[in-house]
From TrEMBL:
Annotated N-acetyltransferase domain residues: 24-160
Domain of life of the organism encoding this protein: Bacteria
Source organism (scientific name): Virgibacillus halodenitrificans
Protein name according to UniProt: GNAT family N-acetyltransferase
Annotated PROSITE patterns: GNAT
Length: 160
């Protein structure tokens, strides 16, 4: 399997729109214990071996920007009751060719909810959020993530 890193970019001028299926909603980071929610999602998808490792990364990379987290970390949750968070994406930023641009980061949907048409709405919501702050964005994935690459291409991302 090819785990070599692949970068993709998007100019953010033309962002397709994909509404969420009935029964789901978006919300931004800001509820009590949302760092644990984030850690649970990225652990469930296999990005981290356990919640503690996920929380270490969260605190090192995201939590140092408290106000930005509230504007840039997106959750998908079910609509029933309080809502069960089932996915996340981060409309962050990073350095690209010696300038700061947007970064699509931590796009994750827990396995039990994958394949339900939630990926496109989540990614495009994050892209719309990125466009509020940036003219261009990048993402980092692996060549082995063929389904993700195919999806990103459909949404206008270009391989670098």
């Amino acid at each position: 399997m090819n785990n070599k890193t692949l970068f993709m970019t998007h100019q953010l001028q033309s962002i397709p729109s994909y509404p969420l299926e009935d029964g789901y909603r978006f919300r931004y980071f800001g509820k009590e214990n949302d760092e644990l929610v984030w850690a649970d999602i990225v652990t469930a998808t296999g990005e981290f071996p356990d919640q503690n490792k996920a929380l270490e990364r969260f605190h090192r990379e995201l939590a140092v920007h408290t106000e930005e987290m509230k504007r840039r970390i997106i959750f998908i949750e079910t609509e029933e009751g309080e809502g069960m968070p089932i996915g996340t994406a981060t409309a962050w930023w990073g350095d690209w060719e010696q300038k700061e641009i947007g970064r699509l980061h931590w796009v994750e949907i827990i396995p039990a909810f994958q394949g339900k048409g939630l990926g496109k709405p989540l990614i495009t919501k994050a892209m719309q959020t990125l466009a509020l702050y940036h003219d261009q964005a990048y993402l980092k994935t692996q060549y082995s993530s063929e389904a993700a690459i195919h999806l990103y291409k459909k949404l206008g991302w270009e391989m670098v």
